[in-house]
Structure formats: C-alpha cells, structure tokens
Amino acid sequence: MPAGVTALVGGASELIIAANEFRDYLTVQLHGTETVCLAFGEDAVDETGIKLLYPGCSVRVLGCKARLAVYGYASGAVNVGTETCEDVEYRPGSFAYGY
Q: Phi first, then psi: what are they for 63, rounded to 5°?
C-alpha cells in the first residue's frame, strides 16, 4: 500500500504530490488502466514526459528532482500512488509476466 493515493479526474494537468525541499526519494505508481504522463516542477501535458503505461508501472525519482512538485495528465479517471520512503521496493511475481 502506498503512503498516498491521488485520484486524477483526467483531461488536465493535476497535482499528484506537492514540492518538498527535504524530500530525496519518491516513487509514483499507476493504479489503473489509463496512461499517465508525468512532469516535475511544471504542468503535465498529454503525450510528453515520463509515461506510466500499465497498472503497476512505477517511476523512482532521486535527489533534487524528487523535491519538485509532481503533476500528472491522464485522459480519464485513474488513481496514482506515491511513496516517499526509499526502503520500499515493489517486485511483481512471475505471474505478472505470464510465465
């Protein structure tokens, strides 16, 4: 379970997590089927930035970029989880790959 969950309405850039000058680590994970485009320190735009494409996809951000506000853009409603503790690591089981 993530430390925080943000529900994106979709269709516009939305704040996922506010800037924090003391944060050195951040993971953002997709919890739905809508693609989410991420931007750091600026508004997110469709088809740009880092894309979370599939449920469970995540991005880990370290250092100064992790301190910036994170915005997301999705076409429709979707949830995005955030974790700011660097000791959390997600590893999908073998069934996630169809083995």
A: 75, -145
